[in-house]
Write a structure and sequence with these properties.
Elements lengths: L1 H17 L2 E3 L5 E3 L11 E11 L4 E12 L2 E6 L5 E3 L6 E2 L4 E5 L5 E9 L7 H14 L17 H40 L1
Antiparallel strand pairs: 1-2, 3-4, 3-9, 4-5, 5-6, 5-7, 8-9
Length: 195
Amino acid sequence: MKHIYLLFLLITLNSCNKDNTADHSDGVSYSDSYTDIDENYNGTYCAEVEYYNPNTGSTNTYELDVEVENGYLTQINWPNGGWLDETHFTSEDISSGECSFSSDRGYEYTVILGEKGGGCYSQGNNIRDDVNQDTENTTCSICGDEKHEYDNYCYSCQRKIEEEKQQKIDDEEERQQRIDDEEQEQQRINKENNE
């Protein structure tokens, strides 16, 4: 009887832990208080990743695999084999099941851990495409520095282009002035010769 009571108690406690998760329409459970991660906080997890680019105002949420080491988010994996890792952001404590950070390009991410094991690439190509599009829209095509989405070039390149245009205008005015001076000099010489 004692064993049946203990078994009943374990089943009840186990079902209470499962009620603690929020069920999203995508079929993956993301925990509110995140009690599902293992004691070591290591491994690959399916995660809800919210991406926000403050330069363009674009924001989206995706399901991606993430890597966690010793309770710290270390990498977000794209479905094509690419990744965003600690060379682009400072590793964040995710032992509570959630963390937020900014990448080296100023993009903001919020990551909520889901089930351990990964393999949740339902929309991974979309985030990669969005990030690539935003990066293209905010990268100067001349030098590769950041620019505002609505500008064609970064401030430095735009200034250089304007200076080059002004230099061409100045050079043309100077050339025209020399031509005018030469014509005036020729007219003066012709006038002197006719007198």
